[in-house]
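Table S2 (text version). Query chain:
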Amino acid sequence: MMISAQTKTRRRLALLCAVPLAFSLLFYLANQSGDAANVQIRGIQNLQHSILTLQSLAEECETGERGFLLTGDERYLTPYQQAKSRLPTEIDYARILTKDMRQFLPRAERVIGDTNQVFEQAQRILKAQQEQGFATALDQFKAGKGQEYMDQLRRSVGELEVDLGKSLSQALERQRTLSHGAFLFFIAGTIVMMSVLLWLYNAMISYIHGTETAQAELEALNIELEERIADRTRELSQSNEELQQFAYVASHDLQEPLRTITSFTQLLASRYQGRLDEDADEFITYIVTSSRRMTDLINGLLTLVRLRKLALPRGPVSIEKLLTDATSSLQASIRESGAHVEHTPLPFLAADPVQITQLFQNLIGNAIKYRRAAEPVVKVSARRDATEWVFAVEDNGQGFDQQYAERIFGLFQRLHGRDVEGTGMGLAISRKIVERHGGRMWAESRLGVGSTFFFSLPISLEPGQFQTPSTTSRRGANSAREPSSASRRLD
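Corresponding structure-token output:
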């Protein structure tokens, strides 16, 4: 029963909407036909004007010719010369108009031919005047067919005027009929549309009254759901804080026994190196290396935990100076590898100096660590877009396969195994630093050519625009990252 009522309502609504649409279509077609009639009327009127213009030019030609022959004054030739210069243009215009009204083409061509005859006759007489004198020219004028040509031109124009007048009357009558029809369609369509709107209004009122109860129930469910979400959010926040605290405490407490293990293992290595067998020396070396690696991993975890607790930046700093501080910290590696660090002008932004310096240290350190046989060259640049500053750290190192461009930012992810020192956390920490500043980080690379790391910082951190934020703006790991710039391997 419910399905039948809904189907009936849909059909009724479709019918009510189709009727005004049909009237609108009829109104549109009537308007289009009226526009076509208007175009036809304008074309007929323009052709009438063009034909009369040709007749006027012929009369000016005749007047100038007669005045000159009777007086010998060349000033009377001015109308003839002006008419002669305008004649080609007016003939072309008349022929253009008849392209869309081919029923008038034969008569229009007759008018054009008669006009040309008048001008040719005048030209012959004026040529005779120049070559044989006024007497000969005047005799030719009197004996010529100039008047006959003019009479023939007037008859041709009159016949064409009659045809144009009839067509114009028919077009005007058609235009009036179409205008009346369009008006009637508009009135009928308006009435039907008002009826449809009234029906829709009544149906909407009924629908609103019928859904008030459901709306109240939905609002109650929404309130209950919001309360549940708030409770769940608090539970998750509390669990997250507890996990962070646990990670911090566990990492911190692990360092003391690890330092003890490392110290005594190094003591064994220094005292008993060569006094035991080769296997013992190798085992002691493994213990020392693993202890140092465990220390690095714990320090990396502590760094990640501390990043969540650090305050946001308070004022603008020179990114160029932070880059200089980072290269100063890496001087030993730079000298050893013969690396060159270059940079373009870098902006002032409200950023955490310690974190941004660490970011540059990680990226430049990776470039040096994963170098090729050639001397490492690291280029740091920045460009400003509409909404952000985009920084690029480019190197000429080993590079990596682009399919791993996202994987390298994960925790403990390494592309080079254990053959290169590192914890696999440097790039994860770098991305977290960028995201804490409201930016994003991505990478591009070509294996055996080099890599480029890109990170962005919002222009809201520029001096004059930065306001101390109350919360951290993050575009975390779930936000879409552009695989547009290069990355290296893993730290």
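Notes on Table S2: Residues 313-461 form a domain with the Heat Shock Protein 90 fold (CATH 3.30.565.10). The longest strand covers residues 450-458.
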